[in-house]
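TICKET: design request
STATUS: open
ATTACHED STRUCTURE:
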């Protein structure tokens, strides 16, 4: 009997990720509320959301800068909590606030971070020359970072992120604060990394960037992934033409968006009930039934042994589950 080929391990896989910040004298703030997402090998996955949606928190957890409250997150098959050092070897992380040591030159900066990654001296020297040439930094390679222009500093930060040739890039709003030329260089860089086979997860609230770059787009709101798909899939499911309208539609509190959330996570999910019936069915439960919180809604779905998923119903408000035979 022929054996079906196994799907490759995702570049990034997040399941049920939560993060709660405890504030002195104030109620705790939940930045992530059960986030689920998957970034496939060789794709650019855009995390689209407004300020405060949870984008930065999610990416900082994946970059091992913060620890989650609960849930799991793996990068290149490595759990971020179990082996954060190995995760750091496999990622390049860059944000709009990534800093450079002002008194180090470009060459010294790359040499320093290359040694932190444990690169061999001969390999590191060649790699520095390659990156300085690729990012047009050779004329300023011996200039202190404090004397560089904004665009030049950003190119140094990019070179630093890819110095060790990581298979996964995590970019947190990398074009924020950049001028048009520097932002364009960043977009070109992301496209080049995809062409080289790297996986890229980046967050943005710039809709044109997401539409141009992303193989798939995930809409995050209030710490949850509300929907995910290609631009065409999102447009078809929502009936909206423009990404701005798609985002507003998905972020609205409606049961259809809750169902799309599960269908975005599990591509083979099928709906067993029609929308007029949702909220009125009595739910059968087993140990395999999962509940996804989405705004005021609770969506119940069954993950079966064959990997298929049945969406059992969407309920408004509190959900009482009674156990009996499915």
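STATUS: resolved
RESOLUTION: sequence designed for all positions
ATTACHED SEQUENCE:
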């Amino acid at each position: 009997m022929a054996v079906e080929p196994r799907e490759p391990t995702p570049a990034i896989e997040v399941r049920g990720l939560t993060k709660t910040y405890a504030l002195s004298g104030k109620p705790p703030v939940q930045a992530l509320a059960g986030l689920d997402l998957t970034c496939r090998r060789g794709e650019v996955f855009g995390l689209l959301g407004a300020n405060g949606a949870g984008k930065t928190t999610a990416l900082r957890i994946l970059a091992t800068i913060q620890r989650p409250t609960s849930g799991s997150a793996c990068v290149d098959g490595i759990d971020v909590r179990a082996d954060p050092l190995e995760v750091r070897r496999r990622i390049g992380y860059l944000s709009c606030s990534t800093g450079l040591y002002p008194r180090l030159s470009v060459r010294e900066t790359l040499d320093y971070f290359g040694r932190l990654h444990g690169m061999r001296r001969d390999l590191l020297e060649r790699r520095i020359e390659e990156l300085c040439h690729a990012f047009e930094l050779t004329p300023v390679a011996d200039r202190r970072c404090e004397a560089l222009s904004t665009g030049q500093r950003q190119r140094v930060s990019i070179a630093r992120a890819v110095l060790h040739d990581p298979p996964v890039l995590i970019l947190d709003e990398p074009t924020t604060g950049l001028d048009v030329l520097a932002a364009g260089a960043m977009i070109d860089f992301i496209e080049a990394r995809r062409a080289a086979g790297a996986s890229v997860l980046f967050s943005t609230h710039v809709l044109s960037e997401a539409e141009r770059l992303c193989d798939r787009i995930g809409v995050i709101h209030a710490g949850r992934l509300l929907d995910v798909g290609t631009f065409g899939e999102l447009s078809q499911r929502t009936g909206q033409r423009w990404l701005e309208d798609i985002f507003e539609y998905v972020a609205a509190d409606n049961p259809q968006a809750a169902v799309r959330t599960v269908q975005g996570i599990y591509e083979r999910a099928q709906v067993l009930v029609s929308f007029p019936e949702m909220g009125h069915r009595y739910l059968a439960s087993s140990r395999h039934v999962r509940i996804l919180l989405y705004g005021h809604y609770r969506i119940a779905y069954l993950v079966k042994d064959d990997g298929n998923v049945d969406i059992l119903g969407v309920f408004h408000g509190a959900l009482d589950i009674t156990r009996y035979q499915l």
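CLOSING REMARK: Residues 271-323 form one domain. The first strand starts at residue 12 and ends at 21.
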